[in-house]
Amino acid sequence: MKNNIYIIIFFTIILTGCEKFLDKEPLDQISSSSYWKTPDDLKLYVNQFYTSFPSNAYYNNEAADCNSDNVVLNVYDEVLAGSRVVPASGGGWSWTGIRSVNYFLTHYKTVEASWEGISQYVGEAHFFRAYLYFLLVQRFGDVPWITKPLNSKSEELFFKKTPRIQVIDSIVADLDKAISYMKPKGQISGFRINKQVALAFKSRVCLFEGTWEKYHSGTDFGSSGSDGKKYLTLARNAAKQIIDDNIYDIYSTGKPHKDYFEFFGQNDYSNNPEVLLWRKYDVNLNLMHRVVSTNFRPVGRGMSKSLVDSYLCVDGLPISVSPLYAGDNTLNNVVFNRDPRLAQSIWIPGDITKITGNDTVRFIKPLIDGNGEYQCTTGYQLKKLCDFFGENLKFEHNERSISGDIIFGFAEVLLNYVEARAELGELTQVDIDITINRIRDRVGVAHLQIDNIANDPKWDFPTLSPIINEIRRERRIELCVQGLRLYDLLRWRAHHLFAGLRPLGAKFIQSDFPNMVIGTNVYIDGNGYIDFYQKALPNGYGFNQNRDYLYPIPTLELTLNKNLVQNPGW
Length: 570
Fold this sequence. Notes:
mainly alpha, globular, 19 helices, about 35% helix, two-stranded antiparallel ribbon
């Protein structure tokens, strides 16, 4: 909460200026007669919505994929476990931000200024309404579409839910306005959303909805009469426009064994070619977070075996068939001859964690025997998103890290594009070369060739085409621990990957942990892999495919508005 307050102040100072901020009355007390006069009033008002973006993922469980099959948290996720109950209130059913945006969109025209002077901020308002509504659709599916601020007597308070396909159409319309109204990169502050950011988000929204409709067709969660092609086409076009703009590129310094890791953890992304939008931290403004270079901790989580096993070998072949695979008896075996992104995402013995004078401290083993924040649940201790490199290795930050948050990145745009093309049945080798192979070039992994895909007997989606499997694999690897995995699983209707199963970890080496007792303070399966939830979830994740793809609507909302209908299965 404290950091959120700081972030609001920071964005206000960065985007508006200290003097202007201090001259303004609190936003919840302003009146139309004293406000809505100048473009700066609009700028200040929309600044509040920037805090809607997720905070630093290292300590944000949802943003770090702890709600998916990628990461095992020391407390199991209630969505995957099927343990959610219908809440009395809350549960994500929040309209405060949308009401605030609607208030802006019904008042901005009183500002006496040219359209050129206000269009950027009007575009931002449309973007944020789309952003906030998309969060609701992902969570609840059908939701009422409201375009004006309501009061206690508004008839819209008793509206029925709007079908999700109509809500998505309205979201797309808002994003199209944002794309049209906002300035492109280079013509607006790097801390503000711009035209390309709106295009990137449009590609995310439309890919989500297109695949949701395709794979949920015929279920209670599908949209009648739609196969998703309309949205897949929109996703393809939005992503391709960014690619064709030739503004962004994959960050690389020509060091395949360092660049991926060091991309996530930089203090300043102002000139980074891969970043569309980021959040800055500043010690002088007391704006910091807890990703630190010397206070070493795994934060009660670990990467899953499932994710680790998905990484290819450097020859571009899966571990099930590659002659380069060295097995998984040790962490060094695990990463040997593998996609370098793996060794840059988990800690490996010998990795430098601290430099004090002439002394170098190196990683020895994961904190499987730790407690709380100092426990690694799987033996695959997460390194991605840490800032343990460069000068940071020499400083005691004491929870005063200022590494930036990447909010939108170019790699996701590339992966959105290639997936949309594949789902539409349009994919060519050129598409692969400008997307997946472009991403792989940073780390030196062999290119993907459409006409030469090795059969993987352990593909996650054996009923789908080889190319769809490989595109989804690439997305999982490149974007892991960035908060996208759960909703990828949901839009693909991929409950078979976790329902009734438990996530595993690394092989447990008793000699490394002589004081740990199997079955008491560490659990392993029949093959010797760490099975952290063995006692907590004896039957595996209890995800109910007929219910758990959406959240339940709180009972209070159903009581207040008799026209609302509860989501399927709840």
